[in-house]
Specification:
By secondary structure, this protein is α/β, with parallel strands linked by helices. It has a domain of 145 residues: Rossmann fold (3-Layer(aba) Sandwich). It contains ten helices and twelve strands. α4 runs parallel beside α6 and α6 runs parallel beside α7. The termini are far apart. The structure holds adenosine-5'-triphosphate (ATP) and magnesium ion.
């Protein structure tokens, strides 16, 4: 869309007044959040602040954890908060996909990775030669050998499972990766590798990313925008530089003060 000669893109994800409750307890409220192509938005905050609840609700997966979600989350125009399952399945794997904190647990343990990859692509209408080419390219992209396709999820390491999940997202050509603490289970070297990979994909393919992390040092290297959460509420939203270098809320200052490497205290 062009307005006064300027190209205005519509957001890939548009969240409005999203509330996540367990029983009558409100655990996460995001009044407004837009995520654009190629943008990395990070949700940060202490443990229990509602980050994962918010991320799952953004994916339309709140029901699966027993939460009640209200409000609107438009992904490519589909409101995933109340979308029928069939529509939700189409959104997952085309528009957005989750790279979870425990990737091995997210993969069906009874299937070899090759079968799993083929099934995922088949669900989105990609079969045969095209599927094989996309899988081979994606594995090369995340630097995994083809022979990994013969293995079961329990036969690969945590870092390999995470890279495989990212490869699936690449093969499916999703527009956005949603990642919950993507590196917390990994050792420091593998962490750096996964982060570099996510960042490269974002630049090369204009992939958007919604990243949940309590690791501000990590967030400072990846995020364009940062949402700070506390007790289920958004206390601050701003560009990375605004939030890291001129935080508005006392809570953000406290979080930053706890990360010596960032050295921001006032
Ligand atoms: N399935 C559930 N049933 C009931 N309460 C839940 C459930 N999942 C999460 N909660 C509660 O919701 C609140 C927010 O949890 P959430 O997992 O979103 O936090 P988080 O910010 O992701 O924390 P962490 O950094 O520890 O992962 C917490 O108080 C948690 O106990
Ligand atoms: Mg969490």
């Amino acid at each position: 869309m062009t307005v006064d000669g300027v190209t205005v893109t519509s957001p890939l994800i548009s969240v409005r007044d999203m509330r996540v409750t367990y029983g009558d307890r409100l655990v996460s409220h995001v009044p407004e959040l837009d995520v654009y192509e190629g943008e990395c938005v990070a949700l940060v905050g202490e443990s229990g602040s509602g980050k994962t609840s918010a991320l799952l609700a953004i994916l339309g997966l709140g029901d699966f954890s027993g939460a009640t979600v209200t409000g609107t989350v438009l992904i490519n125009g589909v409101n995933v908060v109340d979308a029928p399952q069939a529509q939700l399945r189409r959104v997952h794997g085309t528009a957005i996909t989750l790279v979870s904190q425990s990737p091995q647990a997210a993969l069906n343990p009874t299937m070899r990775l090759g079968r799993l990859a083929k099934l995922s692509l088949k669900q989105h209408g990609v079969r045969g030669h095209e599927a094989n080419v996309r899988i081979a390219d994606a594995l090369a992209r995340v630097v995994l050998p083809d022979e990994i396709l013969k293995r079961y999820p329990h036969e690969v390491s945590g870092g390999q499972a995470q890279r495989f999940c990212i490869a699936l997202a690449v093969a499916l050509q999703v527009q956005c990766i949603a990642a919950d603490e993507p590196t917390s289970a990994l050792d420091v070297t593998v962490q750096a590798e996964i982060l570099r990979l996510l960042d490269e994909l974002r630049r090369e393919r204009n992939m958007a990313m919604v990243l949940v992390s309590h690791d501000l040092a990590l967030v400072s290297t990846l995020a364009d925008r940062i949402v700070v959460m506390k007790d289920g509420a958004v206390v601050e939203v701003g560009s990375r530089d605004e939030v890291l270098h001129s935080p508005k809320s006392d809570y953000t200052r406290e979080l930053l003060a706890a990360v010596p490497v960032l050295g921001v205290t006032s």
